[in-house]
Amino acid sequence: MHWEESTKNKMLHLQLPTDPRWVNIAEMNLEEILVDHAYCEQKAASSCISLIVNFHEFDELVEILTTVVAEEWSHFERVLDQIKKRGYKLGKPRKDEYVIKLSEFVKKGGSREDQLVEHLLMNALIEARSCERFKLLSKNILAEELKKFYYELMVSEAGHYVNFIELARKYKNEEKVNTRWKEWLAYEAEVIRNLEIRDDRMH
Ligand SMILES: [Fe+2]
Ligand SMILES: [Fe+2]
What we know:
The protein is mainly alpha-helical and about 200 residues long. Helix content is about 75%, strand content about 0%. The protein is built from eight helices and no strands. The longest helix is centred in the middle third of the chain and has 29 residues, at about 110-140. The chain is globular and about 50 Å long. One fe (ii) ion binds near residues 44, 72 and 157. One fe (ii) ion binds near residues 44, 72, 127, 157 and 160.
């Protein structure tokens, strides 16, 4: 099944599309974009590992996120291959202002489930935005080989988005999750609106 069909009923759309100019400027600085992307994959894997460690009592979460960690790490490996084959270097990780801003919106306190759901929704949002950016890249980047690469990553991140949203709805009342999800979407749109478009960042 095409990814858009498989997720269309579950996909709650981002409120602000990425500025289409971003792809053109990103392609002109491919080394920086690939390095930033590699670290996004590393952070996605690390974030899932932290959730497993911090919320170990939720069996289904542990099981699903263990699979997601493996997939994110394989994405890291694939991006690293793209870096190496072009003679680029991995370089240092950069400050991720997008994720820092999103973290500020995580509500503290409440039950274990409340805390878990906040983190699941933040992760779902990062997956949704990554999916949107990969779609833009796969459609608009000029390098043919990278079109396929970004398309495959887009499909995978869409699956992760669904994993996070479904887990959130499993551990908390669905209506409350949907209300909070709308708040997260509105907040994320503001974050994107206020971030400058950069040629060296995935976000
Ligand atoms: Fe990924
Ligand atoms: Fe992902």
